[in-house]
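Lab meeting notes turned into a lecture example. A postdoc, R.K., suggested we walk through two folding results consecutively so the class can see how the record format repeats. The first protein's sequence and structure tokens come next.
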Amino acid sequence: MTMFGGTVATGIYGEKEILKSDWFAQRVLMQFENKMFYAPVGYKEFLTQLYGDYMTLPPKEKQVSHHDSKVWFK
């Protein structure tokens, strides 16, 4: 039987945020910017389910924020 977990974000992705619990059953050690961090063993499946081809940047004109807030820096 496949177990599922709940949302890990804000709910803006709808049913894509229903995640398989076995993706989080173990962890893997990964390097990010010269530091080591743990990630869920199913991180690839998780990211693909939410974002599709998350390793390919969209064209420049489609690189926009999907957040509902704005931030300005001075």
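The second example is placed directly after the first for contrast:
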Amino acid sequence: MEFIVELLKEMAKGIIREGSAYFFRKQFLDKENENNEKPTLSRDKLKKWVLKKSKK
């Protein structure tokens, strides 16, 4: 009986640890990545930009 209680405690600790890590990543790390990423230009806009640069 004592073994089952210890096993359940360890499982609960693991679930809480994984949940905390998940929410930490979502709240802090993903926001930093969104702010640092530059938006990529679509193919058409990129071609127009290259043509403008080459005409100068």
